[in-house]
Amino acid sequence: MNNTNKDNRTSIWKFIIPSLSGILLFMIPIKYNDSWTLAVKVLADLIAGTVSSVLPLICMLIVTVSALVSLLVKFKPALTADRPLLKRTFHTTLPWLIVRVLGALFILIAFFFAGSENTVLKYIVDSNTGTFILNDLLTTLVIIFAIAALLLPLLLDFGLPEFIGALFTRIMRPLFTIPGRAAVDSLTSWIGDGSLGVLLTLNQYERGFYSKREAAVIATTFSAVSITFSIVVLSQVKLLDYFGLYYLTVCLCGIVCALILPRIPPLSRFDNEYLIKGQAVGEDLPAQYRSSFSYGIALARGKAGAHTGLGQFFSNALKNVLDMWFGVLPVVMCIGTLALIISNYTPVFDYLGLPFLPLLEALQIPEAEAASKTMLVGFTDMFIPSIMAAEQIQSEMTRFIITAISVTQLIYLSEIGGLILGSKIPLGIFGLFVIFLERTIISLLIITPIAHLIF
Fold first, then answer.
1. Which terminal residue of the chain, N or C, has fewer Cβ atoms less than 10 Å from its own Cβ?
2. C-alpha dist (Å) from residue 404 to 233, 238, 248, 249
3. Integer Cα distance of 339 and 412 in angstroms
4. Three-class HEC string of 142-193
5. pLDDT at 192 over 60
6. Angle between helical axes of 329-345 and 55-75 (0-180°, round to 10)
7. Could you count the other beta carbons within 10 Å of the beta carbon of residue 446?
8. Is the pLDDT of residue 399 over 90?
């Protein structure tokens, strides 16, 4: 009996200490250099600042190695026969192999030919296309991926999702059709960073805790834009005085989208199959437990007690960072560069925005024609609509609407969309675009009446 009590106390502390550390790192805002941020972001920035001069080189090497080794594995599959980690990291289908090769081609051009005036190369080395993806985005992601791979197990491996899941299942499942444990993903995104929320979701899906449908819903609906980035885009259009009303509006849109989108195609058509069967935690409260809290503690204690220690911790971290570095960075480089080239050098998104013009005029939005050009360009990068609004639109109400929509659209190819495309979640670029379009229309119908009341 004494041994049992001792084991119970040990497993409780194994749950509390790592989980609390994860919460402090990923979820609790701290003030640093006169601005609010997260401890994990401060850590990532400090590391990035120390090695900033070599980060583009590191990213170039990672993306290039990904393409070369993937090609080698494709044409000599016997190499992976006794090397499961090599197969897991570099074995891919032909379409994704092409993406990795194009990503390597783009990053080599951006790295070695920056500033080139060559007619063809300039589209890739432009500071708003391939060079931006390499120097501004990948250099940030490569550090975040490493930090997240090392520290996310504190949130995931010691029982916190099981505990939160037991508490929130009665809310999350009926309202949003997803497990209660997804509340952890959502909080990480809203308070911290959308890419961290996506990484957390991908990790849970690949380990069998989410089904295909659940992972797709969470990644496209709950991996929200952080408060920090919302402040940045609102500052861009000089409307920071409206931040309180703005963020309440964004939250309302996020909740409404989360209620509607899982119940309509394409998300409603996903099945509930799991990559790894038998890992999902049951959501019904067993008869022997008096409350969801006591059931959550029991689940968390069991999860923490089963953890084998540092070997398992670092093994999971290594798999995570290899997946992110060699699987996702090439996709972000390829898809992000192509999307920004289309956005900056062609009128494609101007034409795609034209069908929105009658709706914008019907909603009595000032400067509707200029606003229509921003409606779909956010699919390439979330910051572009606010830049266009700041440069081209005088109406404060219209700038408010555009900036709010650009945040609630959520799925942009230069980061979150690229992460999803590079993952094992079976969501292609067309499916992502449909979800992006649905989010745009729903957000427009909610944000515009509120903007009319404010302005």
1. N
2. 9, 13, 10, 8
3. 9
4. HHHHHHHHHHHHHHHCCCHHHHHHHHHHHHHHHHHCCCCCHHHHHHHHHHHC
5. no
6. 110
7. 20
8. yes
The amino acid present at 395, given as its one-letter code, is: S
Which amino acid does the sequence have at 323?
D
* 32 strand-pairing partners: 35
**How far is CA 40 from each of CA 25, 28, 46, 191, 288, rounded to the nearest angstrom?**
5, 10, 10, 12, 39
- In angstroms, the CA 227 to CA 190 distance is 6
In which band, very low, low, confident or very high, does the pLDDT at 1 lie, cut at 50, 70 and 90? very low
**Greatest mean pLDDT range, 131-145, 170-184, 197-211, 358-372:** 358-372
Which tokens sit at 387? Answer: 């830049």
Amino acid in position 226:
S
Residue-wise burial string across 370-406, b where 16 or more C-beta atoms lie within 10 A, e elsewhere: bbbbbbbbbbbbbbbbbbbbbeebebbbbbbbbbbbb
Residue 73 has pLDDT above 60, yes or no: yes
- Residues in the chain, how many? 455
Tokens read off for 406: 């650009």
Q: Which residue has the tokens 């090769």?
A: 101
- Assess contact for 73 and 87: CB atoms under 8 A: yes
Tokens at 331, concatenated = 């996709």
Q: What residues have CB less than 8 Å from 178, skipping those under 6 apart?
A: 172, 210, 214, 217, 218, 222, 262
405-418 tens-digit pLDDT: 998 998 888 778 88
Return the closest-CA partner of residue 227 out of 257, 263, 194: 194
Identify the sign of the CA torsion 360, 362, 366, 367: positive
Q: 356, 368 in Cβ contact below 8 A?
A: no
Confidence check: pLDDT of 306 > 80: yes
DSSP H or E run through 262: none
Residue 158: CB atoms within 10 Å: 28
Q: What is the rounded distance in angstroms from the CA atom of residue 321 to the CA atom of residue 202?
A: 12
Q: Per-residue DSSP letters for 6-25? A: HHHHHHHHHHHHHHHHHHHH
Mean pLDDT of the chain: 85
Amino acid letter, 132: F
Q: What is the DSSP letter of 128?
A: T
Are 164 and 153 in contact by the 8 Å Cβ rule? The answer is no
CB 210 within 8 A of CB 179: yes
Query: What pTM, to 2 d.p., does this model score?
Result: 0.75
